[in-house]
Amino acid sequence: MLSVDIRHPQGSFNLDARFDCGAGVTALFGRSGAGKSSVVNAIAGLTCPRAGRIALGDEVLFDAARGIHVRAGRRRFGYVFQESRLFPHLTVRQNLLYSHWFDRTLYSEADFAHVVDLLGIGELLQRQPAQLSGGEKQRVAIGRALLTKPRLLLLDEPLASLDAARKQEILRYLRLLRDETRIPMIYVSHAVDEVLQLADQVVLLDAGRVAASGSVEDVMGRPDLRPGGGLFEGGAVIDTRVGAIDDQDGLATLNFEGGALTAGASGASVGERVRVRIRARDVSIALEPPRQISIQNILCGTIARVDAPEGGGAAGVSVAITVGSATLRARVTQRAARQLALAPGMTVYALIKAVSLDRRIGSDLQKNQ
Questions:
Q1: pLDDT higher for 330 or 227?
Q2: 90, 325, 329, 362: most buried, per Cβ within 10 A?
Q3: According to the CATH classification, is domain 2-229 in 3.90.1170.50?
Q4: What CATH class has 235-368?
């Protein structure tokens, strides 16, 4: 368990962040300038906060009151930056072996071979960084970090400088690392799609403070969190599994405890786990099952709560609908809520277009629009 409690002056605001994170991938999520990199640099030991404490389990890494600041090199954390920061005069093999020059006990030849195979960089070993694509450079940088035998892997927006195709390439390898190495990761990002693909927990930062923390489903589904004027839309995040694929129509059936969803099948395979994000603005409500309608997803559920906008006005009404173990969110006008007399306990039908779903499937990221 990593425990962070730090305070430090940071430009136009004061960094004041407190959170805990455990196994798996924890995303530090927030808009640019929210303090994410400052937090991860403090965790890495690259900066020394003005006040606070950082501990990994029972080991105190930083304690301002007690004058403790363990140097970055002694923390045994791997760090992958936005830029690969490979040594330009060294080959890929030499970059990967860099830590070995200082400590020959870090890993064996078998460890080296496993990392090379895991990241698919065997054919790159004799090249120099100038001969690599952006995605290849980042894979090598990740491999170099892994070969330090880190207790924790820190990734500070590692996809920021890559195009869409290269981002998907690296995300696929990061999922492999998450699932095979089991090394805890802190992943810094301001991109919703990256967080949905990788993270188990989310720490949402806004102007240097923790606005929310918890599971991806809980944090990314909250309709009240729009830090800094609107970072992401409220909605629901649902874990599903591909039950069937209709090749003729290019559609996949995604099963979850509350029923099934239909979405585009590109990149999907039967049995694969899928995390789906359904935006509140894409959910309509009916009091009876509609007939002869083009919408493919019609889910029966019960209204859990209806939240009117503060101060009235033109803002929409937020409706939480329980479907099995999932909670969908719909945003409708006040007129619609009044005409349908929406209230907790009512049975309603949530209507969702298949083409509106944000899917995060296996090795691919697709947004069906």
A1: 330
A2: 329
A3: no
A4: mainly beta
